[in-house]
Amino acid sequence: MIYQIPWIYTPARTVLAIWHQLTKTPIPELANCSVLMRERSRVEETIHAIQRAGAGSLQVIADFDMTLTRFAHNGKRVPTTHNTLDSQLLINEDCTRKMRKLLSIYYPIEIDASLSVEEKLPLMVEWWTKVHELLIQQRIRKDMLAQAVKESSAMLRDGYKVFFERLAEQQVPLLIFSAGVGDVLEEVIRQNHVFHPNVHIVSNYMDFDQTGVLQAFKGQLIHTFNKREGALSHAAGLRELQGRPNVLLLGDSLGDLTMADGVAEPQNVLTIGFLNDQVEERKESYVNSFDIVLVKDETMDVPNAILRHITS
């Protein structure tokens, strides 16, 4: 299509407005009914700046549970990596009951918009610690994890294959920063055939003894609201992330916004938040915090469209 603009007879302000309209980011997915943006012009400018810099300057940082994985399917919750361990192959009924009770107590606290991060922090540590202690008591066998994942209803978001494969093709590093269980996370990605060399994972990993039985969890505990510390300590050690100051960040919690804090001298950071639950209660805080908010969207359509535009 050729645009004919009467430049001579058009006031300067009008010319600029028309030019912006013609050159704005052509990503129709941003007009989806599930998309909320506080400042669309800033989103478009950031995307355009990342595109100009090229794929070689980009890294993607993403949460896993309820971000790369679906929140629900056919009206039923999709299990997180911790919930995937709720299998008769791995734990007994008493452990299942106790883990579900902990979920009913602490998950509402995690997503409570009326509580500050400072108020939530000790309770999140308490929750994760109790769950890990229960799992250790079950003496989970490493050789049973793959089968447990296979039999579970764990599910990546629609469009995940395009997402993972485009990043791999463009050699864009994908840093998955998860408060879940790294061993399960890896198995989910592996069984979906998208565990490419550009994927790097920071998570809570199980420590198995010489007989392959769970005896502890390795390193510092990672939970929803302490990802900044983990980002600072881990990102600097990944050589693949050096010299990539532009970031596409995906998360489902306000705590995920700190995952990019380990990026050295960031230039353009575009944040996408999946608002999966308690939409009305949390919508305002998400729109004020993330650049793009996806409301009850179980797909990767918007991230894929942005990546397609940036890397084309």
From TrEMBL:
One of its GO terms (molecular function) is nucleotide binding. InterPro entries: HAD-like_sf, HAD_sf, Pyrimidine_nucleotidase_eu. Belongs to the pyrimidine 5'-nucleotidase family. Pfam families: UMPH-1. Keywords: Cytoplasm, Hydrolase, Magnesium, Metal-binding, Nucleotide metabolism, Nucleotide-binding. Specifically hydrolyzes 7-methylguanosine monophosphate (m(7)GMP) to 7-methylguanosine and inorganic phosphate. The specific activity for m(7)GMP may protect cells against undesired salvage of m(7)GMP and its incorporation into nucleic acids. Also has weak activity for CMP. UMP and purine nucleotides are poor substrates. It comes from Pleuronectes platessa (European plaice). It catalyses: a ribonucleoside 5'-phosphate + H2O = a ribonucleoside + phosphate; N(7)-methyl-GMP + H2O = N(7)-methylguanosine + phosphate; CMP + H2O = cytidine + phosphate. Its main location: cytoplasm. The keyword Metal-binding applies. Gene3D superfamilies: HAD superfamily/HAD-like, Pyrimidine 5'-nucleotidase (UMPH-1), N-terminal domain. Monomer. This is 5'-nucleotidase. It is found in: Cytoplasm.
